[in-house]
Q: What sequence folds into this?
């Protein structure tokens, strides 16, 4: 979205001035605020309910179920943005797409970090640093890839592909829900070795 918002909104038929393009980013801000409520109060309430149904035991994978909304909103928002821009829909529709993208971006980051901390609490600082390096490297690469992508395929086809790729990536949380506990159990020995090495190095 960041790479294409200015191209779309400043071009015909919208012809937004630079200041209006900047103001359009209030829309993903609204999405981010809604995501804070969703991943905060609602997510905690929902996780507690799942724990009660699991005989009072909270598993880290229970944190991931709110991702289900992203499986729907990611393709919906990307299709609305890309197909909408290709067919010159009203600018308000594009702002709705931006709001949706702001929402899912914040939800994805927050739920992933929550799961990471619940899974590897004692080394969460190191784990977060590693994840952020990977995430920022991917974002850097996408910044270079998106422009030739939509220039060669057009907005509609580019964002249709992105929508279905995004949906598949979001749906991968289901595999973690099913197999995550087993994977964590396999890494127990390596995990405690890392914790012990951190304790030793800190003294």
A:
């Amino acid at each position: 979205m960041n790479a294409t918002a200015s191209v779309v909104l400043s071009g015909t038929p919208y012809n937004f001035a630079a200041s209006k393009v900047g103001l359009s980013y209030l829309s993903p801000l609204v999405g981010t605020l809604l995501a804070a409520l969703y991943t905060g109060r609602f997510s905690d309430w929902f996780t507690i309910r799942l724990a009660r149904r699991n005989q009072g035991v909270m598993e880290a994978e229970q944190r991931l179920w709110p991702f289900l909304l992203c499986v729907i909103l990611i393709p919906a928002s990307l299709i609305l943005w890309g197909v909408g821009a290709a067919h010159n829909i009203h600018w308000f529709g594009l702002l709705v797409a931006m709001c949706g993208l702001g929402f899912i971006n914040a939800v994805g980051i927050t739920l992933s970090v929550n799961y990471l901390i619940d899974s590897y609490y004692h080394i969460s600082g190191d784990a977060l640093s590693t994840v952020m390096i990977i995430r920022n490297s991917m974002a850097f690469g996408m910044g270079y890839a998106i422009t030739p992508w939509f220039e060669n395929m057009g907005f509609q086809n580019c964002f249709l592909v992105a929508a279905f790729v995004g949906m598949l990536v979001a749906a991968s949380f289901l595999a973690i829900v099913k197999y995550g506990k087993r994977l964590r159990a396999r890494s127990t020995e390596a995990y405690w070795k890392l914790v012990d090495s951190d304790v030793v190095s800190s003294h």
